[in-house]
Description:
Blueprint: H1 4-31, H2 36-51, H3 54-65, H4 70-79, H5 89-111, H6 115-123, H7 128-156, H8 160-165, H9 176-185, H10 189-219
Amino acid sequence: xxxxxxxxxxxxxxxxxxxxxxxxxxxxxxxxxxxxxxxxxxxxxxxxxxxxxxxxxxxxxxxxxxxxxxxxxxxxxxxxxxxxxxxxxxxxxxxxxxxxxxxxxxxxxxxxxxxxxxxxxxxxxxxxxxxxxxxxxxxxxxxxxxxxxxxxxxxxxxxxxxxxxxxxxxxxxxxxxxxxxxxxxxxxxxxxxxxxxxxxxxxxxxxxxxxxxxxxxxxxxxx
Length: 223
């Protein structure tokens, strides 16, 4: 059994999750402070990939990163890097579809934070950076961790946008999701079922982690 799809899926999901973690926290922290109208508009824009069909997301990514598009052509001519139909092309797709989950979860955690704790720290002369990492983040950690796990799971299971921007090439761009489809399409049901079982195990572990984090969040508070 060729384990490349698992390895490729895991590295794509991990890289995407790391990017989404910081992007989601940054966006959630600053957008939560904005006026309601502005916040509502940005919410729609940033969470749109969550409700759009994945193939539509993939289409927009092709319009942006395609070899004949300005951005894709720039990287190809100046760096010799083709942004589509490579294993790392799937990272772009995974970031776009996983970001809304991280953003919405982190924003909810920040909005439920007791601001009196931050004000108290300010009266003691602490900087906003210190307050963010030493007060706000520890109090919101369960929600942020839950968002991170969900973003990882979404990136790991991404198929629609990934198949459009990265395609399927065994040993190069294959992921678990695209491998299951290709094996089924070629009537290799046994091979497809093996990868389905692998995916089920990973998904079960992710759901267990999310449930544990939710229980901790309900039971605990700020340290």
